[in-house]
Write a structure and sequence with these properties.
Chain lengths: 336, 343
């Protein structure tokens, strides 16, 4: 039952969207997927692709337009709201009025599916609340008001709330949206830790492709055409990330794992370097300036990076040694 | 209950008791304190008129103020949480006006009355029923628009508009009504805690007690609603049902109070804020009971302050509540960045 590969959530021919009066507003159609225990899954897609709509449908706060969602083989819509609150927890982007609650009061709310009529907390509830606050690293703030927390800390507190719900599935809608780089990384590490240590499934939507690629086990790519699911690396190498954003100006660079703006290559350059970081940043500088990098011999410039202050540029008729990247770029521009 | 909450509530209960007795000892008639003591202790050798004033006027009035204050304050608190809007309150959302409209229809055309004089069972229930239906009608309109409008501020504006509409209907009704009816309606509209005679008191108290009891039962749900509807849903709360329950309770409390005491403003709006500022918390476990006590305290205080020193002239309650309430709201708005429960 608790096996690593147990399928927790699955869908068949799922169509999600809204009902506006009697009119169906379809957002995404024909989705099939499986969400397994212990997986950290990133849901990526352009704005308006329906990431939030899908997450709402999975948390049952929105009904599918057609198709079925199953939780452990049972139809999701046949599970009562109270039962569901112990199986799926959510972290949303919604504005809350929680500023006047302390962190531990807020996290305690996550025990509501288990507590009695008046919501009184028993010893076990209190212990779980403490543990959850601990595991998101907020113990030092457990008596602070939510209003006093930074965005990153608030998000962690909401995750702790979700943890005390003791659910198998954790759904997060853009959990890293307003966070700075350090908080983003911490948050992602935390999600990864939750998936592994608690052996539950964590599905989060994100706009940060780079971090999703680095940290998630699987990618769900959502576009107007539907949903593509697969292991992160397979998805990259099969070229699915290039098709995700339908823009002529942006393409996915498989070599570096980031999206880049395309530009007409004005000159071709070959690069050779002493170490990988030099090579990486040289490519970064050249690509940004619209030079095509090739391995061929018929190039206009051949650059050899011996050190960060010793850059040798061979043009057709001369060799120039530059002391910085700035100088290197100027030389190429003058001779190009 | 946290230490701070416990101490706050304890102090408030002491103040409540003191104010309750202040209401018995101080009024427009000049009765010496020893005489009031004697009357309360059941001594015989006291002036009959004094006994009547203390037991049949001041005592029910103090009870009325206590219950009304609690009811309005709790109503305001629940509305603020449900609508996620710190400026919500029975008078702001037009629920008062709806109740007033219901009362106007009954008083001006059906001859119902809540006057302290002759008490008729029909009059009592028809006025309460009118107020209840009127307030529910407004609540239904607000509920409809709150589902339609994303912004809570806009819902508030709709509430204010509905309030104006109800007022203009009332003005029209006044045109068609008898002078006597209009007079009793105008007097009622100024607000007073003195309209509940001891005969009606049991019914009045029972209805409000039911409302207050139900609001205590909603504490867990109200806490979940602090996170917004979708989080609450995910915590197992049936949001639609919860909203309906809370609004019906608010309807009951507000309409019973309004039927008897007139559209008392500001207690529902301001008391929850004073309460949160005192506690520093929006956790309803502590906040809701304390708001009840504080509401009673404020209403009793208003009632005492309404008796002007000197010749004992009594001014209407509605002249006093804004004096206490408006500065609080202005303070909250000016300091909203610093007040944690608004962030």
């Amino acid at each position: 039952m608790n096996g690593k590969n147990e399928i927790l959530l699955s869908a068949e021919n799922l169509r999600v969207g809204y009902l506006l009066g009697k009119k169906e507003i379809k957002v995404c159609d024909g989705m099939n997927f499986e969400l397994k225990r212990g997986e950290l899954v990133a849901l990526l897609g352009p704005n308006g692709a329906g990431k939030s709509t899908l997450l709402r449908t999975l948390s049952s706060s929105l009904q599918p337009l057609s198709g079925n969602v199953y939780y452990s083989g049972r139809l999701l819509k046949n599970i009562s709201q109270r039962d569901l609150s112990r199986k799926i927890s959510v972290v949303l982007t919604d504005h809350t009025q929680a500023g006047g609650l302390t962190v531990s009061e807020l996290v305690s709310l996550g025990r509501q599916p288990y507590t009695g009529f008046f919501g009184r907390l028993k010893a076990r509830d209190l212990r779980l609340v403490d543990e959850a606050i601990n595991s998101v690293g907020l113990s030092f703030k457990s008596n602070s008001y939510m209003a006093e927390l930074s965005d990153g800390e608030r998000q962690k507190a909401m995750i702790a709330k979700a943890l005390v719900q003791e659910t198998d599935i954790l759904l997060l809608d853009e959990p890293a949206a307003f966070l700075d780089v350090a908080s983003k990384l911490e948050l992602m590490a935390l999600l990864r830790q939750i998936a592994v240590e608690r052996n539950c499934a964590v599905l989060f939507s994100s706009h940060d492709v780079e971090q999703a690629l680095a940290l998630s086990d699987k990618l769900w790519l959502m576009s107007r055409d539907g949903l593509l699911c697969g292991c992160t690396e397979d998805m990259v190498l099969q070229g699915h990330l290039s098709d995700l954003f339908r823009s002529n100006n942006v393409r996915f660079d498989i070599g570096s794992g980031v999206y880049r703006l395309c530009s007409d290559t004005s000159a071709s350059v070959s690069v050779k370097a002493q170490d990988l970081s030099l090579l990486f940043w040289a490519k970064n500088a050249l690509l940004r300036n619209g030079y095509g990098i090739t391995d061929g011999l018929a190039v206009e410039f051949a650059i050899d990076l011996k050190a960060k202050d010793c850059i040798e540029i061979k043009t057709k008729n001369s060799i120039v040694v530059c002391k910085s990247f700035e100088e290197m770029l100027e030389t190429i521009r003058e001779n190009g | 209950m946290s230490g701070r909450g416990f101490i706050c509530t304890l102090i408030l209960v002491v103040v409540l008791v003191l104010l309750f007795f202040a209401n018995l000892f101080y009024g427009s008639a000049d009765i010496p304190a020893e005489a009031v003591f004697d009357i309360l202790l059941g001594a015989d050798e006291v002036k009959e008129s004094w006994r009547f004033i203390v037991l049949e006027s001041r005592l029910p009035q103090a009870f009325t103020a206590l219950l009304c204050g609690s009811s309005l304050a709790v109503s305001g608190l629940m509305l603020q949480t449900v609508f996620a809007n710190p400026l919500a309150g029975p008078s702001v959302l037009g629920i008062n006006s709806g109740a007033s409209l219901g009362v106007a229809v009954v008083m001006l055309f059906l001859g119902g009355s809540v006057g302290a004089g002759a008490f008729s069972v029909f009059g009592f229930f028809s006025v309460v029923a009118g107020a209840f239906l009127g307030s529910l009608a407004v609540l239904a309109v607000i509920l409809f628009f709150s589902a339609l409008l994303k912004s809570n501020m806009m819902v508030l504006v709709v509430g204010i508009m509905v309030g104006y509409l109800a007022s203009s209907l009332i003005s029209l009704l006044n045109f068609a009504a008898s002078a006597e009816g209009v007079h009793s309606y105008v007097v009622w509209g100024m607000g007073s805690f003195g309209n509940v005679s001891s005969d009606v008191m049991p019914c009045f108290a029972l209805l409000l007690a039911v409302g207050l009891f139900v609001s205590v039962l909603m504490i867990k749900t109200l806490n979940a609603l602090l996170l917004g509807e979708r989080y609450a849903e995910n915590l197992g709360v049936n949001v639609k049902m919860a909203r309906l329950m809370i609004l019906a309770t608010v309807g009951l409390l507000t309409s019973v109070v309004t039927a008897f005491c007139g559209p008392v403003a500001f207690i529902g709006l301001a008391v929850p804020h004073i309460s949160r500022l005192m506690l520093g918390s929006s956790n309803h476990d502590v906040l809701l009971p304390q708001t009840m006590v504080l509401g009673a305290v404020v209403a009793l205080l208003c009632n005492v302050l309404c008796v002007l020193p000197g010749d004992g002239t009594v001014i209407p309650v509605n002249a006093m509540t804004p004096v206490l309430g408006a500065p609080v709201i202005i303070y909250v708005i000016v300091n909203q960045r610093k007040i944690q429960y608004l962030n």
